[in-house]
Amino acid sequence: MVTILAVVVLILSLGYIIIQNRPVSYAPRVYDVYYYDLGEKKLFVDKNNKFAPITAPSGENRGARAYVYTCGECSDTSSLFIGHLEMFTPEAKKNLENPPPMDPDGATPYVDYYEEGRMVRAEADTAKWVPANSNEAFQITEAVHTRCGGQPAKACNPGDK
Questions:
Q1: Separation between Cα atoms, residue 112 and residue 103, nearest integer Å
Q2: Which residues of 93-117 are buried (b: 16+ CB within 10 A; e: fewer)?
Q3: 10, HSE (Cβ side, Cα atoms, 13 Å)
Q4: What whole-number distance in Å separates Cα of residue 144 and Cα of residue 155?
Q5: pLDDT (tens digit, 9 = 90+) per residue, 122-145?
Q6: Residues 82-92: pLDDT tens digits?
Q7: What are the structural domain ranges in the chain?
Q8: What one-character-per-residue DSSP string does 65-102 give?
């Protein structure tokens, strides 16, 4: 009985050591999100690992990331509304998709491209994209909270309940 118990403890210990020493994966989780076809003015679904503009169902490179909300339940598609749209400048998109080599001093240009090249706009404002880190962008993104009568809006992704 003592031998069996010792073998079980040994196996569990080895399993624990193996699990603790395996490499950690930092790959981001890929899932479905909403995009907005600027040509057809319709939502469509694609993966979150893309930097807008992406190719939209209309065939053009006019798919903007859409941040979709509801005042009720995400499963009630009739209650969904677009809080704001997002896309990147051509230079930022190019550098985010193919990052340049890291600076030997440890600077992270990826963050700069993301922050400086990210643009937002309200769905209805068809001509005006503003830098995402501007006061105007803050007003656009915060406007979602006034749509639900004082209650916080609920962010939705495709398939959310």
A1: 13
A2: bebbeeeeeeeeeeeeeeeebbeeb
A3: 6
A4: 10
A5: 988 777 899 999 999 999 888 888
A6: 999 999 999 98
A7: 30-156
A8: EEEEEESS-TT-GGG-EEEEEEEE-HHHHHHHHSPPPP
